Amino acid sequence: MLQIAVTGKPNVGKSSFFNSATASKVEMANYPFTTIDANIAIGHVIDTCPCKELDVVCNPRNSECRDGKRIIPVELIDVAGLVPGAHEGKGLGNKFLDDLMQAKVLIHVIDASGSTDAEGNPVEAGTYDPLDDIDFMENEIVMWLYGILSRNWVRLARKIGAEHLDVSKVIYEQLSGTGITVEDVIEAKRKIEPDYNKWEEEDLIELTRNILKISKPMIIVANKADLPTSAENIKRLQEKYPYVIPCSAESELALVRAAESGLINYTSGDSSFDLVEDGKLNKNQKTALDYIQTNILDVYGSTGIQKALNTAIFDLLDMITVYPVSDEHKYTDQKGNVLPDAFLIKKGSTPHDLAFVIHSDIGDKFLYAIDARKNMRISSDYELVSGDIISIVTT
């Protein structure tokens, strides 16, 4: 299952984001290091299910379908808050960095209102610049990776030359356990001085920075978007960075709890909610819901929680949703379940790639694939598109 790391300094709403994205109950408080051990839970991304188009009733196994929306699970990890000097072990730095390394994408939660200082302490809204947090977060991770790589670099460089080793493979092995691949290193290395013998400290730092951006793309969640000092900061963030999602995690939590209590009809990602019975709401509840609709949903189109998860998976990781079946005529598995599984797979993947994602044995025994919609055989190098329903034939 794909893993997303929820990162950020203390007291910016990381745990509120995590709770609202996973319906978990992680401890929240207004002081640094509330989160000490990493919390792991299941969130979801949402894509269109083919059931409506095909006019069938689906029976999902690895996911859920709600009125034509396929709810696909992903794993979220909420790690301890990061503080300046984390790469040197300050705060819970080493634990934080260890915890997030297996994630494929990072969601960086910041306090868009500027009411949390660099250490995660509350300050007057608007007195801290949240843009400072972006470079700080990246720099801490880069310097931590650089520390691992540079520790034995002189010796490794000599060994590469003496034994004619592959530079990228040596770097990959040095960074083993961080979720970084050889392909990530190869791509990152293209952007710096090609002769490793000429690498200075700044070259190694630039290399690790490139590796991080390739292997752990980051989305910025601008939390507390409803506060008066947030709007201008969000505008500045969006002008500088490609993926910035305005967000109110507290609003999402309130809406989810109201829906669970039967007060409203609401699905995460919606731009509005429906009251079940207006008379059930007390004055405070009605005021709170009116505030959320006016200051978050009407302004930004959603609370930002579901948009952040979908953006992380479908845009940053460039994933698509594919539906493997056994019977291409009935769109079922061997037990008769209609559209049973939804698999997230990299855009550009082939049916043979899909076979390996399903199971290594199926990949090894792959013969060909059938496009169930067209009921026709497709080539093994056909590039899958989102929503494809594929039957794989094996030996």
Characterization of this structure:
The protein has 395 residues and is of the alpha/beta class. The protein contains 14 helices and 14 strands. Strands 1, 2, 3, 4, 5, 6 and 7 form a seven-stranded mixed beta sheet that branches. A five-stranded mixed beta sheet has the order 11-10-14-12-13. The chain has a two-stranded antiparallel sheet with strand order 8-9. Strand 12 and strand 13 form a beta hairpin. About 3% of the residues have low confidence.
Question: Short description, anyone?
Answer:
With 395 residues, the protein is of the alpha/beta class. The protein contains 14 helices and 14 strands.
Mean pLDDT across residues: 89
Summarize the amount of helix as a percent range: 25-40%
Helix tally equals: 14
Total count of strands = 14
Low confidence ranges: 24-36
Coarse morphology: flat
Radius of gyration: 23 Å
Order of helices and strands: EHEHEEHEHHHHHEHEHEEHHEEHHEEE
β-sheet strand percentage:
15-25%
State the end-to-end distance: 27 Å
From the helix content, strand content and strand pairing, which structural class follows?
alpha/beta
Provide keyphrases for this structure.
7-stranded mixed sheet; alpha/beta; flat; 5-stranded mixed sheet; 395 residues; single chain; 19% strand
What's the arrangement of secondary structure elements?
Blueprint: E1 3-7, H1 14-22, E2 39-48, H2 51-54, E3 64-66, E4 69-78, H3 93-100, E5 105-111, H4 131-150, H5 153-163, H6 167-174, H7 182-189, H8 201-215, E6 218-223, H9 230-240, E7 244-246, H10 249-260, E8 264-265, E9 274-275, H11 283-300, H12 305-316, E10 319-325, E11 343-346, H13 351-358, H14 360-364, E12 366-371, E13 376-378, E14 389-394
